[in-house]
């Protein structure tokens, strides 16, 4: 397998596997393992749909074009502005959350005094920003290292947990229909990585075949890890015990695994997994944010390149910005928010599902529907990729995703 394809797979996987995965089985305790597994399978395939739709659309735009750029070409400048606005709100808010989580974990490990936390946060922003701003290749290498470490920590967590596994605990069914209904947003939010796809298309030189391998393979890794983790944790205790644990507000998963007596090794594994999961998620998000900034400050293009281009034509979006300017635009706002108004990003994260669904899934699928309808000549070449689902199905999926996103953010 090509190095870039493998790296892209790990970018997808790293962006998808977040530290919140550790408590996923606790949040789904009321539906049991079998229903959890079924929902993981369903949303795995559902989340591949917008991913492959974006892959189809990217082949008709110059290298370096984002979702917003595709939307602009298909639906006009107003949708371009709306898509960019949604992306910046989502990306900056989530970047604040990731940076806050990373710095808190490291600061606790290093026992950084409270009065130096803001300075330490600034130092972390500079280091993390430096990694992703240099180049996508450097971000890929660091992401791989973090991903391998995360997998090692995960293996330790699973190995320790297997000693208490009781297969009977995996046979529980949902306590009610309402429990199943309320569990849907948990798994819908678990597979969020779509904001990254245009950056991966850019990294893979608009090679759609390689991009499809990276997307399918990259999403399959979290599916396997989510399944194993849910199996292990659901098997630790009865359903009533897991529900009680969830209602207690106790998020110490190590305590559950070891029956209230966590070991030093397990504590280290949980910390390492949490930290590396946050870092890989941050790298994926920042890569997408930087691609967007580059496109927003692009050099002038020919009239032809401002529209859609044949899949076999080579064209690239060139930015006016140097790396230092990109760094400032990407990380000055998160740094200022964390330094002066850290609660600000929490408000927007309350609408993260709606924002990310509209920006990175629904609008791209609607743009693809428009491309298929108004630019049939683009599909006349034999080497053009066309996702198998018809436009009417993509429209139905778009409506379904909007509904589930509102379920997730508004708790109804």
Automatic annotation (TrEMBL):
Q: Which UniProt keywords apply?
A: Amino-acid transport, Cell inner membrane, Cell membrane, Membrane, Transmembrane, Transmembrane helix, Transport
Q: Which GO terms are recorded in the biological process aspect for this UniProt protein?
A: amino acid transmembrane transport
Signal peptide from the UniProt entry: none
Q: Where are the transmembrane segments?
A: 38-55, 85-107, 119-138, 145-163, 183-201, 213-232, 264-290, 321-340, 346-366, 387-408
Q: The organism sits in which domain of life?
A: Bacteria
Major localisation: membrane
Q: Which InterPro entries match?
A: Amino_acid_transport_2, Trp_tyr_transpt
What Gene Ontology cellular-component terms does the record carry? Answer: plasma membrane
Regarding the membrane, this protein is recorded as:
Multi-pass membrane protein
What are the protein's GO molecular function terms?
aromatic amino acid transmembrane transporter activity
Pfam families recorded for this chain? Trp_Tyr_perm
List the subcellular locations.
Cell inner membrane
Q: What is this protein called?
A: Amino acid permease
């Amino acid at each position: 397998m090509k190095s870039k394809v493998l790296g892209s797979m790990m970018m997808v996987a790293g962006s998808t596997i977040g530290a919140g995965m550790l408590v996923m089985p606790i949040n789904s305790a009321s539906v049991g393992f079998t229903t959890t597994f079924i929902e993981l399978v369903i949303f795995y395939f559902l989340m591949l749909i917008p991913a492959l739709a974006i892959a189809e659309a990217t082949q008709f735009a110059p290298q370096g074009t984002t979702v917003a750029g595709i939307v602009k070409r298909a639906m006009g400048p107003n949708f371009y502005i709306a898509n960019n606005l949604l992306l910046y709100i989502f990306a900056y808010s989530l970047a604040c959350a990731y940076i806050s989580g990373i710095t808190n974990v490291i600061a606790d490990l290093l026992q950084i005094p409270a009065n130096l936390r803001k300075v330490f946060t600034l130092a972390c922003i500079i280091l993390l920003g430096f990694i992703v701003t240099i180049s996508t290749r450097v971000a890929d290498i660091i992401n791989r290292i973090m991903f391998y470490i995360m997998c090692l920590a995960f293996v330790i967590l699973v190995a320790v947990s297997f000693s208490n596994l009781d297969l009977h605990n995996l046979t529980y069914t949902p306590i009610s229909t309402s429990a199943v209904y309320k569990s849907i947003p948990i798994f819908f939010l678990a597979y969020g990585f779509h904001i990254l796809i245009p950056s991966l298309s850019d990294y893979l030189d608009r090679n759609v075949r390689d991009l499809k391998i990276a997307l399918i393979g990259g999403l399959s890794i979290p599916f396997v890890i989510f399944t194993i983790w849910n199996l292990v944790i659901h098997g630790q205790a009865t359903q009533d015990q897991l529900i009680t644990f969830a209602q207690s507000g106790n998020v110490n998963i190590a305590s559950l695994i070891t029956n209230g007596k966590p070991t030093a090794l397990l504590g280290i594994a949980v910390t390492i997994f949490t930290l590396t999961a946050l870092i890989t998620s941050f790298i994926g998000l920042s890569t997408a944010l930087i691609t967007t900034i580059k496109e927003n400050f692009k050099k002038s293009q020919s009239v032809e390149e401002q529209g859609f281009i044949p899949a076999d034509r080579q064209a690239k979006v060139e930015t006016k910005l140097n790396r230092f300017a990109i760094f400032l635009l990407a990380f000055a706002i998160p740094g200022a928010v964390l330094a002066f108004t850290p609660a600000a990003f929490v408000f927007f994260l309350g609408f993260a599902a709606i924002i990310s669904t509209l920006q990175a899934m629904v609008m791209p699928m609607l743009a693809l529907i428009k491309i298929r309808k108004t630019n049939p000549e683009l599909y006349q070449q034999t080497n053009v990729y066309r996702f198998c689902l018809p436009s009417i199905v993509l429209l139905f999926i778009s409506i379904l995703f909007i509904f589930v996103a509102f379920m997730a953010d508004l708790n109804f």
